[in-house]
Amino acid sequence: MKFTLSWLRDHLETTASVAEIADKLTALGLEVEGIDNPAEKLAPFVVAEVLSAERHPQADKLQVLQVDAGNGPMQVVCGAPNARAGMKGVFGPPGAYVPGSDFTLKVAAIRGVESNGMMCSERELELGTGHDGIIELPGDAPVGQSYAAYAGLEDPVFDIAVTPNRPDCFGVRGIARDLAAAGLGTLRAQPVRPLAEDGANPVSITVEEGSGCEAFAARLIRGVTNGPSPDWLQARLRAVGLRPISALVDVTNFFSIDQARPLHVYDAALLNGGIAVRRGRQERFDALNDKAYEATAEDCVIADDKGVLGLGGVVGGVSTGVTEGTSDVLLECAWFDPLAIARTGQRHQVHTDARARFERGVDPLTLQEMTDAAAAMIVELCGGSPTARSMATTARWSEVTAPRSVPLRPERVETLAGLSLPPEEQNRILTALGFVAGANGWTVPGWRPDIDGEADLVEEVARVAGLDLLPSTPLPREAGVAKAVALPSQRLERRVRRAAAARGFNEAITWSFISEADSTLFGGGAHVLANPISEEMKVMRPSLLPGLARAAARNLSRGATSVRLFELGRRYLADAERPTLSLLMAGDADPRSWQSGKARGFDAYDVKAAALALLAEAGAPVANLQLSQGAGDAFHPGRSATLRLGKAELARFGELHPALAKALDLPPGTQAADLYLDALPAARDKGRARPAFTPPALQPVTRDFAFVVPEGLAAGDLVRAVRGADKALITDVRVFDRYQPAEGDLSLALEVALQPTDKTLTEADLLALSEKVVAAAAKVGAILRS
Question: Alpha carbon of 454 to those of 4, 174, 403, 451, 461: distances in Å?
Answer without folding.
Answer: 34, 21, 16, 8, 11
